[in-house]
Amino acid sequence: MNTVITSVLSRFHYPFPMLKNPFAGVLQEITEQHWIDGEYLALYPNDPLTRKKYKMTKTAHIASQWFPTASAERLKPVCRLMLWTLYNDDRCEECNSQELYHVRDQSLAILQGTATRNDTDIPLAGLLSTLREELLQFLPEASMQRFINGLQKYFDGLQQELHYKARQEFPSVEECLAIRENSLCLYPFLELLDLETEVILPEFVHQHDTIQRLKALAVRMMICFNEV
Questions:
Q1: What separation in angstroms does the CA of 191 have from each of 2, 148, 153, 219, 228?
Q2: CB contact set of 54 (below 8 Å; sequence gap of 6+)
Q3: Is residue 92 pLDDT above 80, yes or no?
Q4: Which domain of life is it from (predicted)?
Q5: 189 and 65 Cβ atoms separated by less than 8 Å
Q6: pLDDT at 12
C-alpha cells in the first residue's frame, strides 16, 4: 500500500473502548441458516456465491457492535434490518428513478402499516413485514415513526446518488458527504436507541439541535471510516 495512504489511515482510531453484544454468534447463525439459506433463500436461490458474500459480511456481528447491550430479542430485529440493507442496496444499485421510487413507497408503506406484504410486489416485502412486527413489540409509535423517517433519508440519499450516476458526474467532496450521510443508511439504526436502552425518551430530546448534530457527526465518522 502507498506509504502516504498508510500514514493517513494510521491516524484514524476510535478513542473509546469497543463493546460487542454477547449474542452476536447466535444471531449470526440465525442470519446464515434461518434467513439467508432459509426464509429469504428465494431471493438468491441459484446464486450461492452471493449468499456466501452476505454470510461473510457478518451482519449480526456489525449489529452487535452497534447495539452491544441489547437483549437477544431486541437485537434480532436490528440484525434483520442490517441484512435488509445488504439486500436492498444490491437490488437498488441498478435501479432507475422510477423503480427506486416504487421500492421506497412500498417499503415505507409496509413499515407504516398502510400496506401488507400481499398488497405489494417488491421482493423484500416479507422481510419488512416481519421487521415491523418485531419492532412494534418494543417501540412506541413515535419511536417507530422516527425510525421510518430515518429510512426515508436513506432512500433520499440513494436518489441523490442516482442523479449523479445518470449524468456520469462527480459531486464535490462536501456534496458527497451530505449524500452519503443519508445513503449509508445509518440514521435508521441511530433512531432505534429506545430499542436498546428500553428507556423511552420524550420527543423533544430526540429532536434537540444538539442531539441532531451528534447524530450527524456519528454518521459522518462512519462515512470517513467506510469511504476511506
A1: 38, 9, 12, 12, 25
A2: 36, 83, 86, 87
A3: yes
A4: Bacteria
A5: no
A6: 73
Predicted pLDDT at 67: 97
211 is written with which cell numbers? 442531539
Q: What is the largest CA-CA distance in the chain?
A: 55
Is 1 a residue whose pLDDT tops 60? no
List, as own/partner pairs, every contact residues 30-36 make where C-beta atoms lie below 8 angstroms and the sequence separation is at least 24, other chains included. Answer: 30/60, 30/76, 30/79, 31/55, 31/59, 31/60, 31/79, 31/83, 35/80, 35/83, 36/83
The Cα–Cα gap between 180 and 222 comes to 10
List, in order, residues 6 or more apart from 102 with CB less than 8 Å away.
Answer: 122
pLDDT digits (tens, 9 = 90+) for 137-196: 999 999 999 999 999 999 999 999 999 988 899 999 899 999 999 999 999 999 999 999
Closest alpha carbon to 153 in 114, 191, 125, 187? 187
H helix and E strand count, the chain: 13, 0
Residue 41: HSE in the Cβ half-sphere, 13 Å Cα cutoff: 8
What does each C-alpha distance from 101 to 97, 116, 130 come to in angstroms?
6, 18, 22
SS3 label, residue 89: helix
